[in-house]
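Exercise 7. Given the encoded structure of a 523-residue chain, write a plausible sequence.
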């Protein structure tokens, strides 16, 4: 059995075509043969009637020589095998083959049994019952013979030369047999033509089907196989070119989406590993430098008090104190980012947590001329979470949105909605974080069971984030605020949501703002 799918399809089509054409040709040739035999039967029956009518007058006058002459003359025709006249007892009276005259035919033989089924001659038979096809021997062709009864007429039993009783119905039979050599040759020719046609049809159909299979099946399948080999070799950037619009095309589209997801997943897994490594490193560094920073800040503050009458020294000490405090904030962020403590889980009203966060940033919203729009769902969804950490998440997102809007003012829209996802539509970030759009970072994964989720969206009208930077914004110390930020805010958000089996996605277009969406399971 061929291993290639295209060859299997061509072979299946060829076998199916062979069966269909073979069955069709068999019944067609059989029907044509039957029609041809029926036509020969009709012709022989007409010939038999002609012979009987030609010898009728001679039989009435008992002119045996003329009857022999007529029978012999007709029997000499090329297609006629034999012409015989038999009496009621089955004795051959006249025959185109002189050696048969006087012989008694075997009534049980295939050629005579139809008229003597019960040792009594049947008086009225249809043409099908009076027709028989037989072969005299193994080397001879088929013979078709028609028996035509010679009935006792009034002129027969009333004639002075005859001794037939008026009660006798059949006086004898006229047996005309012709060779079916030409008909069999014609049927054989039809069979050969059917075979040639079947072979040509199968070859033509196989070639045509092969072309279509190669174009519609073989090439797409080879492209998919090539793609799987590339993916197996580690090339997750491979894309199947020009997918078709059929089922194989849909499979190619699914394959391209799969490789894209795998590439993004690999990138995010690497990022997760990098975050974990950086977190461990940051924790160690933060603990190591926290005490020296505290000492520097303490002594600097002490020197500030002792050198109040020295403006130049005060100026330098102010720089030392300011930068030391800045370092301390960075260390604090590192500790928050690397902290692996278990959240204090309780049932939290998500809307209440947002409202408490807004109280903290109310002045900053007012000073930055930012309009806040709240579009909360009518439900009061609760989640199992650490309320303080959730407030930190919302606080970081709102502060980032204010910074992105800038001093000219704009709008921040906070909305919430309760949705229900199937088990394979949401995944924890630590398993498969991946963008669901070209310019989106999506940390999706499979949760344990189907349930409802609360989605909180923070949308701003700020400057937006370039597409090439979206993959970096969750990395520690990466910031789009230049020197105004530490680059740890979104990394901390990532870690908090990871501990809460949630996810965060972002969609942004430069100049049109950014939209961050947080998804958490409803309690």
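Solution.
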């Amino acid at each position: 059995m061929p291993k290639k799918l295209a060859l299997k399809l061509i072979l299946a089509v060829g076998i199916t075509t062979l069966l269909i054409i073979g069955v069709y040709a068999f019944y067609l040739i059989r029907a044509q043969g039957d029609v041809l035999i029926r036509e020969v039967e009709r012709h022989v029956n007409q010939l038999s009637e002609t012979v009987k009518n030609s010898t009728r007058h001679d039989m009435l006058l008992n002119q045996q020589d003329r009857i022999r002459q007529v029978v012999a003359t007709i029997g000499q025709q090329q297609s006629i095998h034999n012409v015989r006249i038999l009496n009621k007892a089955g004795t051959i009276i006249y025959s185109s083959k002189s050696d048969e005259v006087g012989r008694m035919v075997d009534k049980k033989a295939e050629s005579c049994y139809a008229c003597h089924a019960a040792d009594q001659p049947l008086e009225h038979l249809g043409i099908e019952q009076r027709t028989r096809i037989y072969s005299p021997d193994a080397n001879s062709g088929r013979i078709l013979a028609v028996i035509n009864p010679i009935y006792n007429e009034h002129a027969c039993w009333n004639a002075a030369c005859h001794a037939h009783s008026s009660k006798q119905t059949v006086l004898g039979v006229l047996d005309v047999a012709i060779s079916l050599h030409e008909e069999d040759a014609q049927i054989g020719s039809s069979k050969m033509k059917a075979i040639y046609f079947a072979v040509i049809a199968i070859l033509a159909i196989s070639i045509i089907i092969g072309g279509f299979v190669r174009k519609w099946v073989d090439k797409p399948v080879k492209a998919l196989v090539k793609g799987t080999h590339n993916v197996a070799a580690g090339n997750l950037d491979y894309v199947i070119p020009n997918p078709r619009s059929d089922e194989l095309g849909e499979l190619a589209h699914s394959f391209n989406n799969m490789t894209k997801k795998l590439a993004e997943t690999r990138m995010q897994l690497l990022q997760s590993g990098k975050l974990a490594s950086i977190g461990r490193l940051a924790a160690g560094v933060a603990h190591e430098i926290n005490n020296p920073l505290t000492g520097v800040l303490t002594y600097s503050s002490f020197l500030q008090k002792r050198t109040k009458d020295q403006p130049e020294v005060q100026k330098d000490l102010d720089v030392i104190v300011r930068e030391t405090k800045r370092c301390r904030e960075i260390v604090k962020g590192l500790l928050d980012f690397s902290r692996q403590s278990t959240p204090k889980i309780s049932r939290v009203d998500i809307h209440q947590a947002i409202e408490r966060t807004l109280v903290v940033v109310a002045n900053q919203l007012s000073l930055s001329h930012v309009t806040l729009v709240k579009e909360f769902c009518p439900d009061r969804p609760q989640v199992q979470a650490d309320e303080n950490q959730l407030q930190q998440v919302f606080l970081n997102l709102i502060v980032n949105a204010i910074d992105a809007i800038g001093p000219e003012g704009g709008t921040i829209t906070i909305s919430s909605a309760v949705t229900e996802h199937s088990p394979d539509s949401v995944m924890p970030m630590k398993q498969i974080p991946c963008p669901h759009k070209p310019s989106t970072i999506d940390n999706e994964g499979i949760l344990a069971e189907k349930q409802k989720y609360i989605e909180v969206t923070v949308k701003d009208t700020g400057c937006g984030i370039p597409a090439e930077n979206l993959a970096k914004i969750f990395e520690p110390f990466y910031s789009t605020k230049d020197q105004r930020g530490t680059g740890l805010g979104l990394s901390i958000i990532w870690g908090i949501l990871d501990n809460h089996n949630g996810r965060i996605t972002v969609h942004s277009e430069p100049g049109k703002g950014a939209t961050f969406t947080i998804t958490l399971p409803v309690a």
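Remark. The chain has nine helices and 14 strands. Students should compare their own answers with the one above.
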